[in-house]
Design a protein that fits this description.
Helix content is 47%, strand content 17%. It contains 5 helices and 5 strands. It has helices at residues 2-35, 46-99, 132-138, 140-146, 167-173; strands spanning 122-123, 148-149, 180-190, 202-213, 220-231. Strands 1, 2, 3, 4 and 5 form a 5-stranded mixed β-sheet that branches. Strand 4 and strand 5 form a beta hairpin. It is rod-shaped, with a radius of gyration of 48 Å. The chain crosses the membrane at residues 44-65.
Length: 232
């Protein structure tokens, strides 16, 4: 009878015990979920903003690289143009200080006629058919044929006038070619209007045009000066 009553008591308590066990299991499950929770997925605008910022930084970097390349090209073009200008200016100094200074011993009225092919001077005063300006811009090949290379001018004694710079200097500077120079006799202006049998003192005017390239064929510099010599 005692055994039967004990079994009945255990059976009577079993629903409460079962409820306690179930509560314990639920608590353990919730603790495990809290401890081993999986990371949450990305959400919101953070990802989109990050991608946009990366795109903007990429565009800024590409633009900076393009700007640097453009500046390099501009610097090279400016250097090339400066070389052409200096080359052309060098030719003008060579003609004015060398060739035209050697014309002192020539009769003022025949300065152009006294020159041979080595020191050709175009008489623009008497030969109106020769338009140097028109040749320079519309027929450059004809202008080049009439012009003389730098360093090839000769004086009236048929001696080559020493240039300021030789071919070695041009090669070292990286110039494409020697400059070309064309000299024109423009006019004679007397000091007075006196009429007489003798030659009147005055000024002979020469127009000197030089054309030179820089380090490439793209750049070209054309300079022109008016040079006067006094003959008495």
């Amino acid at each position: 009878m005692a055994l039967i009553s004990l079994m009945d008591a255990s059976i009577a308590c079993s629903p409460q015990l079962l409820h306690c066990v179930i509560r314990c299991l639920k608590n353990l499950r919730s603790m495990k979920l809290a401890e081993y929770r999986y990371p949450r997925k990305e959400r919101g605008a953070a990802l989109i903003i990050g991608l946009v910022m990366m795109l903007l930084l990429t565009m800024i970097g590409v633009s900076a690289m393009q700007g640097t390349g453009m500046q390099d090209k501009m610097t090279a073009n400016m250097r090339d143009s400066e070389m052409a200008f200096q080359n052309s200016e060098l030719a003008l100094r060579y003609v004015e200080r060398g060739f035209l200074q050697s014309l002192d011993n020539i009769e003022k009225g025949n300065t152009w006629a006294g020159c041979t092919s080595s020191c050709r001077i175009i008489n623009s005063e008497e030969n109106s058919a020769v338009n140097v300006r028109d040749m320079l811009f519309n027929s450059p090949a004809d202008w080049d044929a009439r012009a003389i290379d730098y360093g090839d001018f000769k004086n009236m004694a048929n001696a080559v006038i020493s240039p300021v710079s030789d071919q070695t200097d041009f090669d070292r500077m990286g110039l494409k070619a020697k400059p070309k120079v064309l000299v024109e006799y423009v006019a004679f202006t007397p000091f007075s209007a006196d009429i007489g049998d003798g030659e009147q003192p005055g000024l002979d005017y020469y127009r000197v045009t030089s054309k030179a390239a820089g380090g490439t064929d793209v750049s070209e510099s054309i300079l022109q000066t008016l040079f006067s010599r006094r003959f008495e």
